[in-house]
């Protein structure tokens, strides 16, 4: 009888051990094909752009807010342009819109990093001035739409370096004494939202973590959007070649590859009559994102400068959500 009990005890012990072993294995299961693909793409971009190399030069230039931007901004906010130089991603700029005296303050502020379309660039950062404790940073593309129209090859060069420039900008900002690194947020609007997933994953590779991410009026079809935007500037004879070259670069940046691997909290804002990013494109992005996520629909077309009511409504949604999650 005692032998039977001992045998049963051994079986239970061995069973428990095997169970614990399996639990340990469950935590170290091989990464999914999706994760492997994202990691492979990120490694290629990281090496190609030499992101392990430090910034060679950082220059901060105070700016005078334009009176047309509103008296609230002039009175209670201050602007600075920060220019960077890097060996492989070139020269790039960001605009920092912060509370008066934030650079000399001992206070650490939450920060929202914004990347939008080619035509708006860093101007988007100037639209946020109602929440006084928030620093808003706008990323400026290295080439604007008029320059790209004259020389379409600039589009390919720009797309190649944008994720690296965004990642390095976030790295620099996270190390500043006036930034609360535990309250880093990112906002991708329109075209900027297409670049955001790969940029945030690159930022992770250089030890930067963004806690909250907003995708506004954007989606997943990066190539078709850029081809559509550039189509009117390209000669019909080179349009096909441009599309092929574009595909080679954008394969590595594909939001559908990197979005499922993002971490943190997510807000997706969808325009109900968005003619640039149809509902199914925005919904596709939302479905790809991991939990915790929220979808907000705003009546109206695609957001753009000049659509003041839609802009203010969107900003209000973003600021309310940031207050809730931070």
Structural classification? alpha/beta
Please count the beta strands (DSSP E, at least 2 residues each): 9
CATH topology grouping of the largest domain: Rossmann fold
H-E order: HHEHEEEEHHEHEHHHEHEH
Under CATH at level 1, the class of the largest domain stands as Alpha Beta
Q: Kindly, what is the distance between the CA atoms of the first and last residues, rounded to a whole number of angstroms? A: 62 Å
Mean pLDDT: 84
Q: Count up the domains.
A: 2
Strand adjacency order, main sheet = 1-2-3-5-4-6-7-8-9
Helix count from the secondary structure assignment: 11
Low-confidence stretches: 1-26
> What would CATH call the homologous superfamily of the largest domain?
Alpha/Beta hydrolase fold, catalytic domain
In this structure, how is the largest beta sheet organized? Answer: 9 strands, mixed
Q: How is this structure best described in words?
A:
There is one protein chain. With 326 residues, the protein is an alpha/beta fold. The chain has two domains: 1-30; 31-325, Rossmann fold (3-Layer(aba) Sandwich). The chain has helices at 2-27, 33-48, 71-76, 145-150, 153-174, 191-205, 222-231, 236-253, 255-258, 279-288, 308-325, and strands at 57-63, 77-86, 90-99, 109-115, 135-140, 179-189, 212-216, 265-271, 293-298. A hairpin with a 3-residue loop joins strand 2 (77-86) and strand 3 (90-99).
């Amino acid at each position: 009888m005692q032998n039977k009990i001992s045998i049963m005890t051994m079986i239970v012990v061995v069973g428990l051990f095997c169970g614990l072993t399996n639990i340990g294995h469950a935590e170290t299961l091989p990464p999914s094909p999706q994760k492997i693909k994202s990691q492979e793409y990120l490694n290629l971009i990281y090496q190609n752009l030499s992101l392990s190399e430090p910034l060679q030069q950082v220059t901060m230039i105070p700016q005078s807010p334009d009176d047309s931007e509103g008296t609230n901004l002039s009175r209670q906010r201050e602007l600075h342009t920060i220019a960077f130089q890097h060996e492989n991603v070139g020269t790039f700029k960001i605009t920092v819109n912060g509370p008066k005296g934030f650079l000399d303050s001992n206070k650490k502020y939450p920060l929202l990093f914004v990347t939008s379309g080619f035509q708006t660039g860093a101007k988007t950062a100037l639209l946020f001035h109602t929440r006084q404790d928030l620093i808003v940073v706008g990323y400026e593309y290295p080439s604007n739409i008029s320059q790209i129209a004259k020389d379409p090859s600039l589009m390919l060069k720009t797309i190649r370096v944008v994720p690296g420039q965004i990642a390095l900008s976030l790295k620099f900002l996270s190390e500043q004494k006036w930034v609360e690194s535990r309250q880093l947020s990112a906002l991708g609007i329109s075209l900027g939202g297409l670049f955001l997933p790969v940029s945030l994953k690159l930022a992770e590779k250089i030890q930067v973590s963004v806690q909250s991410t907003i995708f506004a009026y954007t989606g997943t079809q990066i190539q078709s959007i850029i081809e559509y935007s550039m189509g009117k500037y390209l000669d019909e004879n080179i349009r096909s070649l441009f599309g092929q070259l574009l595909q080679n670069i954008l394969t590595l940046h594909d939001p559908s590859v990197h979005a499922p691997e993002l971490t943190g909290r997510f807000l997706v804002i969808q325009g109900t009559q968005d003619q640039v990013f149809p509902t199914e494109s925005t919904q596709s992005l939302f479905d790809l994102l991991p939990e915790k996520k929220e979808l907000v629909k705003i009546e109206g077309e695609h957001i753009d400068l000049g659509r003041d009511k839609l802009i203010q409504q969107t900003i209000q949604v973003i600021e309310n959500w940031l207050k809730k999650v931070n």
